[in-house]
Write a structure and sequence with these properties.
The protein is an alpha+beta fold. 55% of the residues lie in helices and 16% in strands. It is built from 4 helices and 5 strands; from the N terminus they run αααβαββββ.
Length: 141
């Protein structure tokens, strides 16, 4: 009877130690990602794509109603830049949410004028027919 209890207790101790090690490793990884602007990159990707698809694309179509899409978007094949400042202003006005906290933390801050996304529309010039590259200019505090 004593052996069964000791095996049970040793298994519980092993599981507790294993979970503790996983939590410690996870917190170290999370802290490093947070300090290295990982979340800022992800949020900028999400916000910039939303800005292009829901604002720029729709506005361009409305302003150029009836024109051929290749004429409208063809001139931007080499790309055009959208600054983080523009995206943050749009998101704040549109959704009344201040996303600036993703780009200004205790660990780092991003330059809203030097951080930008470059959009390159391509055929057939639909809402999601584009390539995008991101350039984050962030510095550690």
């Amino acid at each position: 009877m004593v052996r069964k209890k000791s095996r049970y207790v040793s298994k519980i101790i092993f599981v507790v130690i294993f979970v503790g090690v996983l939590v410690a490793i996870g917190s170290v990884i999370f802290t490093n990602l947070y300090q290295n602007s990982f979340f800022a990159e992800k949020k900028f990707d999400e916000l910039a794509r939303s800005y292009y698809e829901d604002n720029l694309y729709e506005t361009t179509l409305l302003e150029n109603e009836g024109q051929d899409l290749s004429e409208i978007f063809g001139k931007y094949r080499n790309g055009f830049k959208v600054k983080l400042r523009q995206v943050l202003s749009y998101e704040f006005l549109e959704h009344n949410v201040n996303y600036r906290t993703y780009f200004e933390t205790e660990a780092f801050s991003c330059d809203t004028n030097e951080t930008y996304a470059t959009f390159m529309p391509h055929e057939p010039y639909g809402k999601k027919d584009y390539d995008v590259t991101f350039n984050l200019k962030c510095s550690k505090n």
